[in-house]
Amino acid sequence: MQIDKFPFLYIYKHYSGNEIYFAIDRLVQGKCTGGIRVREGIEPGELLDNARLMSKKLAVANIPCGGAKLGVNLKNPREKDTLLSDFGRRISSLLSRNIFIPGVDMSSNPDDVKTLRGCYSGKYYRLTEEINSSFYTAYGVYVYLKIIKKRFFPDSGKLNLAMEGCGKVGSSLLGLLCNDKNFRLKYISDKSGAFKFRDKNDIDFVLKEKSREVWKDLSEILPEKIGSPKDLKYLDIDILIPGAVPEFILPEDIDRIKARAIIPNSNHPFHFEAIPGLKKNNIIFIPEYLPNCAGVFGALLGNLGFNPFYVRYVINKHFNLVFDFIYKEAVSPENIYETAERLIEAKLNTPLWKGGLNNNPVHRLLSRLSDYFNLFPRNIRRRFVTTWYLPHSAMWSWKGTDIDSFKI
After folding, report:
1. Does the pTM exceed 0.85?
2. Helix (H), strand (E) counts: the chain
3. pLDDT tens-digit profile of 246-260?
4. Contact criterion met (CB below 8 Å) for 267 and 53
5. Is 249 helix (H, G, I), strand (E, B) or coil?
6. Are 163 and 242 contacting, i.e. CB atoms less than 8 angstroms apart?
7. Which of 125, 173, 183, 185 has its CA 20 to 30 A from that of 12?
8. What is the full DSSP assignment across 180-197?
9. Most confident of the ranges 1-10, 91-100, 123-132, 388-397
10. What confidence category does residue 400 fall into, taking pLDDT thresholds of 50, 70 and 90?
11. 3-state secondary structure (DSSP) of residue 225
12. Which among 229, 257, 255 has a CA at the least distance from the CA of 243?
């Protein structure tokens, strides 16, 4: 497959009637990565937007790789394996050289990735059910909740939360929050409605049901329904966590939102016209790619063989460094969102992150070394991450002249 310009979109129409949309935002050091999203009715524009968002997540995590996304418009579920296998052969030149590194996303699993890659799985590929990217995405949101609490509400006692969505990420976040004395999750929603938690027994019951192979809607689990999912936005709470519906925060919602902060758990949670209103009303809110990049981060570190305890340590340390850097530039809380956007766009426009077809010999060498990084002894890899990566993880540019602009 030839790729001559970016962003790149390829539409593959299979004889079965199913379609695959393959979007690449950019190549960085000759590589791109992104998950396989499976859903009937998926649109090509959605894939391009999410590939761009993936580039932002990778840039925040300081992982020199471009964003991509593969969408399966699956009309006949029985044809999924054949469809992925045939498309894998179609893009074999990208898979065999690790130019495109696929991962798990909405309604896909490690077996789907292995089917796509086929004989190109390679010795560096270590996709197992043990690496739970949904948990790490939830952990990223949890770290940002703690950051916001410590930075802006240190004397407020226990903060009341409302969370939209209770899928894999939402239920993982629920498990993290239920034992934290700094937060009280009072409300939760899914497609069946918004519900109130009466006590910890309700939370335990939801977690138990969400651990089963077949999930129930919240309407079958919780008795106290308070309205539709959109009603969650207007409750008297401290922090709102959008986690499912794109553009959950609309311009007409602004004056009815009572939350003091919004920490997103979903992609594209804000309608672009809602941004000025949130800022005007002094609501603290951050771009979704800041907490959400933890899913990418955790999957990468897990694939490199690091244990979950160390992965959480790196994510926690990295996120605190990055937030301190952004807040230092923002000066005030209402400017955090716009400052993060400005910084990430500036980073994506530096020579390395602009990407391309990897004609730079230094970039080719670094890319080749990264392929073999997980073959180094674990103590060497860990020493590299702790002593080199983390001290520079808040840097928004790889220019040597910028190294002293941030001090730990």
Report:
1. yes
2. 14, 12
3. 899 999 999 999 999
4. yes
5. strand
6. no
7. 125
8. -TTEEEEEEEETTEEEE-
9. 91-100
10. very low
11. strand
12. 229
The answer to whether the CB of 49 falls within 8 A of the CB of 87 is no
Contact criterion met (CB below 8 Å) for 158 and 181: yes
Give the residue from 60, 8, 155, 37 showing the smallest Cα distance to 346.
60
Residue type, 237: I
Strands (E), 151-286: 159-164, 183-190, 193-196, 225-227, 239-241, 261-262, 284-285
| Element at 10 (helix H, strand E) | strand 8-13
Stated as kind and residue range, the H or E segment containing 19 is strand 19-24
What is the mean predicted confidence (pLDDT) over 98-126?
79
Averaged confidence pLDDT in the chain: 86
Going by their DSSP bridges, the two strands 19-24 and 8-13 should be labelled as antiparallel
Q: Quick one: which of 14, 35, 342, 17 has its CA closest to 168?
A: 35
